Amino acid sequence: MLSYLKVKNFSIFEEIEVEFDKGLNIVTGETGAGKSLFIESIKMLLGDRFSRDKQRNTLQKTVFEALFEDTTLDNETKEKFEIDNSLILRREIDSSGKNRIFINGILATLNELKEIGKKLVDIHGQHDHQVLLNPDAHKTFIDKLVNETIIKDFKNTYKSYIEIKTKLENIIKNRQELEIKKQILQEQLSEIESLDIKPDEDSQLEEKIKFLSNIEKIKNAIDASLQILNYGEINIEKLLSELSHHLLAIKDLKSELSSVYEKIDNISYEINDIAHTLENIIDFEDFNVDDLNNLIDRKITLDKLLKRYGPTIEDIINHKENIKKELDSLDTGEEYIEKLQNKVLDTFEKLKNKDSLLYKERKKIALNLKNEIMAILHELELKDAIFEVKFTEHGKITANGSKIPEFYITTNKGFKPAPLSKVASGGELSRIMLALKEIFAEIDEISTLIFDEVDTGISGKTAKKVGIKLKNLSTKKQLIVITHLPIIAAMGDTHFHIIKNINNNKTFTIIKKLKENERKKVLATMISGTDSQSSISQAEELLKLNE
Fold first, then answer.
1. How many angstroms separate the CA atoms of 465 and 458, rounded?
2. Which strands make up the sheet holding 86-93, listed edge to edge?
3. How many angstroms separate the CA atoms of 474 and 24, rounded?
4. Which residue, among 34, 27, 139, has the nearest Cα to 389 in the 3D structure?
5. How far apart are CA 48 and CA 228, in angstroms?
6. pTM value?
7. What are the backbone angles phi and psi of residue 311, rounded to the nearest 5°?
């Protein structure tokens, strides 16, 4: 529930603070005192667009702040903003129009504020009642009571049907274009597959080409090296052998000589190993110039692919796999088209079943809703009202189904129900909306309802019945009701009065929580325009109705 509201530097509100209670909170005030501005303040708090011309002092920031208690937000939101039972919303707008938003002291975005606001407060004014004039909204009301799984299954099946149907239509329509695309992809795939590319092949090719391009230089260097090592008349291997022979006779005479002998022996072993490695690096007799040319040709071809699909070998391999997947999806053969056509028919059959199930569920809900609304309308002095929900056959299944519900009503005896949008008056619309709000109160998790102009077009006995209905609804939800009817105002558990004053040629507005005597005077003034003894007595009578 909304327990505290603070507004600062907003139009005629220099600074106001209001502490709301549970149950039915009534807000009254003279015309122009600021009742509409009060509603607008709450809308600003919940993320509505702010107009800078409403900033009272352009050198100061405008602040909207509220405390909500016992919120029913989802766990993800609670964890993100560290919400326990209490939640503080704060929105600041500086002189340049820049927003700063805090949710429980944590900086947040305007969208986050709007999303949370939708779950906290439901505001209904005269404009909101006009929603009922739009037949599309009637389906939304019905579907609130329909099993979620049925709606979800229908929507998922409809989505699948449209996707498959669109795919089939595109294939048939763009068959020639798809065939050309398919041919291009197949050529690309053949080009890549013909090379049988291996990972790291690019670097290996470069190494082989570099080696074979310098084969003569390598051969000459290896031959010369082998001459020095062991092929030449005078070579390292022979010299080391002679050195080892001389040291052999004396190596046991001193430990240092033995160490030198071992080192010479190890060097001889290393020299033999080096010579063996050089001898086996390449069989120069098997070298063929064509090998080098083939490697260079492959490198040129690979470079072209790298430039086109690279920059790496891995990119080329990935591109090959993507081509295969795309080719599978571009199958335009008769067999594939027939397969898709059968899939479209099968999915459409499923969709018809889901649509039929949705219609049956909506019809059952509509019948219950009709009976409940008629009972409430009769309580609200529309005793001759006949309310119906009729289903319009569209001839095809749309995203909303094939049969769409629309509200029909008549409030006069002897007349057949007609579309709500054509026959309902403002007073009737407000009572229908009130009936819907009462019905949905049990399933709607929003804990605070705000009604502005709920008493449009009603008076007398009807107004009393509306007041009683609001009182009953306030046992399930916190209600904040702006009214100009004393009989509804008297039903409130708490009564606030908006008062406009002018001081030094400047307008100031306050919102005052009324004590018992103050409340009597306000109600008396609402009854007769003055707080005379007669009107005070009438106010006291009205208040007794609420005891």
1. 10
2. 13-19, 2-10, 62-69, 86-93, 99-103, 106-108
3. 5
4. 139
5. 92
6. 0.65
7. -90, 0
Q: What is the DSSP letter of 1?
A: -
**Paired tokens of 336:** 């594939």
- DSSP-derived 3-state class of residue 48: coil
Residue of 434, 425, 389 whose CA lies nearest to 407: 389
Q: Give the DSSP per-residue string, 200-233.
A: THHHHHHHHHHHHHTHHHHHHHHHHHHIIIIISS
Tracing tokens 């109160």 back to the chain, one arrives at 441
Measured distance CA(162)–CA(157) in Å, rounded: 9
- DSSP H helices in 11-108: 35-45, 75-80
The answer to whether 347 and 161 are in contact (CB under 8 A) is: yes
pLDDT per residue rounded down to tens, the chain (547 residues): 999 999 999 998 999 999 999 999 999 998 888 888 999 999 999 999 998 888 998 889 999 999 999 887 888 888 888 888 889 999 999 988 899 999 999 999 999 999 999 889 988 876 666 677 788 889 988 998 899 999 999 999 999 999 999 988 887 777 777 778 888 888 888 877 777 777 666 667 677 777 777 777 877 888 888 888 877 777 888 888 888 888 887 888 888 888 888 888 888 888 888 888 887 776 555 556 666 777 777 777 777 777 777 777 778 788 888 888 888 777 666 777 888 899 999 999 999 999 999 999 999 999 999 999 999 988 888 888 899 999 988 889 999 999 999 999 998 888 899 988 787 777 777 888 888 888 887 777 788 999 987 777 778 888 888 898 899 999 989 999 999 999 999 999 999 999 988 888 888 899 999 999 999 999 999 998 888 888 899 988 888 876 6
The DSSP symbol for 384 reads: T
CA 518 – CA 341 distance, rounded (Å): 76
Query: What does DSSP say about strands 506-513 and 106-108: parallel, antiparallel, or unpaired?
Result: unpaired
Kindly give the residue spans of alpha helices, DSSP state H, lying in 144-280: 148-173, 175-195, 201-213, 215-226, 236-248, 255-280
* Cβ–Cβ < 8 Å for 67, 4: yes
String of b and e for 50-69 (b: at least 16 CB within 10 Å)? Answer: beeebbbeeeeebbbbbbbe
Q: Say whether 423 sits in a helix, a strand or coil.
A: helix
Q: Which residues pair with 69 in a beta bridge?
A: 86
131 and 456 in contact (C-beta within 8 Å)?
no
**Contact criterion met (CB below 8 Å) for 352 and 158:** no
Q: Phi-psi region for residue 502, left (φ > 0), alpha (ψ -120 to 50) or beta? A: beta
Q: In 10 A of CB 83, how many CB atoms? A: 19
Closest C-alpha to 310, from 197, 428, 230? 197
Cβ pair 415, 387 in contact under 8 A: no
